[in-house]
Amino acid sequence: MQDFLSSLVSVAFHGLAYGMILYVISVGLSVTMGLMGFVNLAHGVFAMAGGYIMLSAMNGLGVPFPLALVAAFIAVALASMVLERLLYARLYTAGELEQVLFTIGLIFMSVAVARLVYGTLPQPVHLPDYLKGQLRFLGREFPTYRVFLIVFSISIVGLLWFGVERTRWGAMVRAAVDYRAMAQSVGINTSRLFTLTFALGSGLAALGGALGAEIIAIQPTYPFEHLVFFLIVVAVGGLGSLRGPFVAALLIGVADTACKYWVPEFGAFFIFFATIAVLLWRPEGLFGRAA
Amino acid sequence: MRLKTLTWLAAIALAAASGLAAAQTVKIGIITTYSGPGSAQGDQLDKGFKLYLKLNGSKLPPGVKVEPIYRDDTGANPDAAKRLAQELIARDNVQFLTGVVWTPNAAAIAPLTAEAKVPFVIANAAGVAIPRASPYVSRVSFTLWQSSYPLGQWAAKKFKRVYTVVSDFAPGHEAEEAFIKGFKEAGGEIVGSARVPMTATDFIPYMQRVKDAKPEAIFAFNPAGKQATAQMKAYADLDLNKAGIKYIGTGDITTDEELQNMGDSALGVMTVHHYSAAADRPANKALVAAYKKEYGEKLNPGFMVVGAWDAMDVIFHAIREQNGKIDPDKTMQLIKSYKNQTSARGPIQIDPDTRDIIQNEYLREVRKVGGQLANVELETLATQYKDPWKEFNKPK
Amino acid sequence: MTHAGGYIADSRTRAIEWLPWVLAVLCYFIAPSYLPLGSYVLTMIIFALSLDLILGYGGIITLGHSAYFGTGAYAAGLLAVHLTGEPLLGLLAGTLAAGLLGLITGIIILRTRGLALLMLTLAITSLCFEVANKATTWTGGVDGLGGFTVQPILGLFKFDFFGKTAYLYCLAALFVCWWLVRRLVYSPFGASLTGVRENNVRMHAVGAPVYQRLVISYTISAALAGLAGALLTQTTQFVGLKVLSFELSGELMVMLILGGVGRIYGAFVGPLVYLVAQDYLAKQFPEYWYFGIGMMLVLVVMFARGGILGIIDTGLARLRRKPA
Fold first, then answer.
1. Domain that holds residue C50
2. Of C1, C127, C257, Cβ closest to residue A101
3. Predicted pLDDT at C286
4. How many domains does chain C contain in total?
5. ipTM
6. A-interface mutation test, from C110, C133, C290, C308, most A Cβ less than 10 A away
7. What is the pTM of this model?
């Protein structure tokens, strides 16, 4: 029993790292879907782009790891601002179907571009030496990088929550999510808010993709393969919420891995059963606003 | 009058020339994977074919040309592959079919080749029973029994208790069955077996169960590509090496094109396979040099590149011997008698009874050579080895 | 949701509605080497029609329609492997199995709306996929279900290598489905569906049994999808896991939106254009056809709401305005 629990802890720990990465990537999607009401299925593209930029910087230009992360964040945030102004903004009034079609088209194009530029093989990830190896903690060994992921993601989450709860920008976002028309009528420039928030959300996705490159391989089909999980995190967590996707991502990361370990035959079913159960019980998600 | 005759003569000459030209252009249908999660493997086949055609495309009888037609099956999609093969045969009139990464795809295509009498030279798909599905199918790549059975027998000399972890599809089942048979026959004990779904990106839960069972070694099989790297990382992350559990398997788990990404945790892993990019036979050195020159200094060819290369060589052999006029039955006879002493993997031949590949299987260990990781060939475990499954399961 | 489809009271068949059938029959004679592709296009048209019923007319956005397509496909395949290769029975099996699943899942999930409903459909199809993935003794898992033969239709028409029989078989099936969907859409039932889509609240207010209507149409839609799946199994004599994948649902939705939602013929035009373009681009640039398709989708959305039929409508309207 002791052994089983200890193995469960080890497995859960790995799942925790995965869940944290999922959160960092998906939180941007939750905010933009809640704020702009835009079904952006192409969110995974930003995560993939972040991963590629970081890896190109590190492998091709020899840029150190922290700098490469920052570069990925900034580059993708800027690029997404351009995309938002040029393309996305035109479709805010279009129906959901049009948005779905558009974002799927974007995914197709970016998958092709990624293959053209980087080839089909997954990108090699060479971690800096100080992040390799194992850490000894509570009498067990844990991979250093996963510990780093968890700590770093939690601090990003903390920063984000602080930003949304305490800053003026955060207040404006919350106002616009709750009641867009009213926010506009009190003078909030919603379109600039959208652009900024979209940039932040995409930048976070890029950061998540880059950080997670070690666990979730960066390759051209990335946006398709992981779309389901980003959507599940957002839907189960609740649109426009920060806390909700956090819990959902934890659930997916930890519980899914634990189930696969405990009951390998049926482990893969857990996520989908959980999604169905939660959405039938609370269709708006765990922390979403009831319609 | 003169002009008219001249025009007629010109017309006849043109017709004869184009008729001749048409007879001497051999169309080859190549089905591989360019999109979707399996594209890394498909890319290897593509590179192998194109490199061969670039370097050897002119080594044909005079007036004979080859026209390769590439198609994307988008992954392990048997229905798409079948439709592509059908179109290649009926629409494009190909005289050869080759390529195919995935066993399910090859299994779906095989019956078509019997109906349409088109020789199919499999460059990768490893399912043992496929050549039996049609008399026009031959295979140049490998079977999992060829590598796993000898590995099982060798492993029993070093380890008493082994846990098997394989990918959940036909080649995975075959690897598992072959290894277990070889291992048990030589006196070993299997402590547990796990099958990992093809869609899994994370091997941690499965490797943790292995750690719990405390075997002396893990026998692993995965379809190369990124899964190989993911499984290696899980092995390292859970510190299985320190726990005294060795990692062994078929060469797919340390596949050459991914090996550099696996990091130093791959050192010491022992595998059995028919090809290693680090082999120092001259034919291989030439292939690796040509590959690096064409595709990049940092890249290494994997076993699928060699599979594609040799498949094209078989086809070219058949074309040369028939001077460009392809007859399916004569082609199969030529294929069945194919021998090549200078393939990059050592001497190979096609078994005339089963139409499957006969080759050497090498025991390799991952070591650092010149600062790079390499599958160093230690010894030849099996020489000119036929697929053992067919020996054990002779048709009644 | 913006699209041109609305309720049309006049249900007589207009002359132009015979055009697709004429084209299809022409194809049989002038492009015999394209018949396997043709069969696939026809099958996807039936699949798209089924989606249009609930998406275009019912207003339910779903990413999980391949659950029903796949169920039909595996039902027909399993029947052929274990019992009989009789094709019409296989079609029936596929339709019934998918319809049953549609009924059960519809009852459970149609109380929700919007993103929650979308995710539920996605979760259901992913679950079906995993079940098929695991149940390798029944479904063959990743390796797929093959090795069965489909007997000649009505004992007379054998499935030939060149796909001639298959093509005509699919065409006949499409005709039946089209007629069914058309009758449904132009009936009072269809009108009530349009009502549900346009103004849910008001439908409740006039006392229409909204939930019941949705469940019924969802079940019919699932049954049709299952029929399409069974057709695919029989024409290719193989069932792969892809039939249950969410990627296929996504692809189908793209095809339908591309053609034009909520107007029956969008389901004809969309798959035709998408699959022919894919076939052409994949031939020229096997590695890069994704880019072309993506670009086409983005352009259609940017410049043409309502899909291809929407573009045609706008074009025709402009032409009519010109002579003045």
1. 15-268
2. C257
3. 62
4. 1
5. 0.84
6. C290
7. 0.86
